[in-house]
Amino acid sequence: MSAQANETLVRSLYSAFNARKFEEASKVASPKLEWRDVATGEIVRGPEGMRHFMERWANAFNDARVDVKRVTATEKTAVTEFVARGTNTGPLETSGGTLSPTNRRTEVAFCEVATIESGKIVSIATYYDSATILQQLGVTEPAGAGAHK
């Protein structure tokens, strides 16, 4: 596919997330999709895995919105930079267990690298600072917070 078509494809993914159209979003996933959350090490697979991954974030942050800042695409890849904002009103599943809602807002920069074949996403690697999310939720102290006591 062309770079422009791949940019349009990944932008449709974020639009579907913002509209909570998870079934629509999962239609851009290849059956062999592998989505890797680099911060946690979690890997989800296939359209169902994609849908579940997105639903889980939306359930934890029911007002979450993705603000796409830039998409750089080629015939095989698309790199997206975005800011995700939301209020933690639901349980947040993490690699260390499930966190109870804090009702606190988060705003975190993300970068995702997608590989696209035949109009479907076959892989995504998601990069973000999970420590910042935990700090904003009040679960952990900022780095160095206790160093000058």
- CATH architecture name: Roll
Strand content: 35-45%
Largest sheet: 6 strands, mixed
According to DSSP, the number of beta strands is 8
Mean pLDDT across all residues, rounded? 93
Mind telling me the C-alpha Rg?
A: 16 Å
Helix count, DSSP H or I runs of 4 or more residues: 4
Quote the CATH topology: Nuclear Transport Factor 2, Chain: A
Shape from CA axes?
globular
Can you list the strand order of the major beta sheet? Answer: 2-1-8-7-4-3
Alpha-carbon distance between the termini? 57 Å
Structural class based on helices, strands and sheet pairing: alpha+beta
| SSE order, one letter for each helix or strand | HHEEHEEEEEEH
In short:
The chain has four helices and eight strands. It has 149 residues and is an alpha+beta fold.
Please describe the topology of this protein.
Blueprint: H1 3-18, H2 22-26, E1 29-37, E2 42-45, H3 46-60, E3 65-73, E4 77-87, E5 92-94, E6 97-99, E7 105-117, E8 120-128, H4 130-136
Could you list some keywords that capture this structure?
149 residues; alpha+beta; Nuclear Transport Factor 2, Chain: A; two-stranded antiparallel sheet
